[in-house]
Specification:
The chain has 2 domains: 118 residues, no CATH class; 106 residues, no CATH class. It is built from 6 helices and 10 strands. An 8-stranded antiparallel β-sheet has the order 1-8-7-6-2-3-4-5, with no helix packed on it. It is elongated. The two termini are 43 Å apart.
């Protein structure tokens, strides 16, 4: 399957991790690898190694690998770098389905990538923080999550969610209001840590942070603390309540 690679290259330019969206559920954190190849006049390619900023070929001498610098060095137009992204599907700890994405660094014009899937596909399971076992899990696209990250800096999670489900199609819209609310919570927490305001997080720190969010976050409705029972936290959005009323 050939896909548009422009979004991934944009993420890489910003120092973000590579990510290729699909409908196969959650994937374990992937990794990238880059290989270098030398295009011969015949059209064939030879694998190259880079040592001390020079292109080399590997040879085995007396049972040891050595790298011999090429003379003359290949011209820039003859050298091709292939980048690959590898990921494994999260499936109850059984890595039976894998993904490999390959693209050329020197492609002119609109960048594209080749996506290959290997293994036996099983029903997509959500990541550990999601609860949608009653239906097929589809991860929110990275472009949508990037938009959410920008808007939650100044906006209400409920307003952002309502706006997105009205403006985006079903494949690109966030799954529910929790996606936006969780993104806002985790980004705020990360920002505080980076600012040096929170080095060690205790239960009391978490509760204080949660209580401070009640006046501004539409998803956190109430936090009740008594000496007779555990802390009670009520979380819901207006849309969730509307859906419940509609069902009954």
């Amino acid at each position: 399957m050939v896909v548009d690679n422009a979004n991934n290259l944009s993420r890489c330019a910003k120092g973000l991790k590579s990510q290729f969206d699909d409908h196969c559920g959650a994937w374990a954190e992937g990794h990238c690898a880059t290989t270098t190849h030398w295009m011969q006049p015949s059209g064939e390619f030879k694998y190259l190694f880079v040592r001390n900023r020079e292109y080399c070929q590997e040879k085995v001498v007396a049972g040891k690998r050595t790298y011999v610098s090429l003379e003359p060095q290949p011209l820039p137009k003859e050298v091709w770098r292939i980048q690959r992204y590898y990921a494994t599907q999260l499936n109850d700890g059984k890595p039976s389905y894998r993904k490999r994405v390959s693209w050329l660094a020197q492609v002119n014009g609109q960048p594209v990538a080749l996506v290959e899937y290997l293994g036996k596909y099983t029903r997509a399971v959500p990541h550990g923080n999601s609860n949608c076992s009653d239906r097929h899990y589809v991860r929110t696209p990275s472009t949508t999550m990037t938009t959410i990250a920008e808007q939650v800096k100044t906006g209400s999670a409920k307003v952002i969610y309502d706006s997105m489900i009205m403006s985006l199609d079903i494949d690109n819209a966030p799954r529910d209001g929790r996606v936006v609310a969780n993104k806002k919570y985790h980004d705020n927490r990360k920002q505080r840590r980076q600012a040096g305001n929170q080095y060690r997080v205790t239960f009391a720190d978490e509760m204080q942070t949660l209580c401070s969010m009640v006046p501004t976050d539409d998803f956190i409705r109430s936090v009740t603390v008594t000496n007779a029972r555990v802390i009670q936290i009520i979380l819901y959005s207006d849309r969730q309540m509307t859906d419940i009323v509609f069902l009954f």
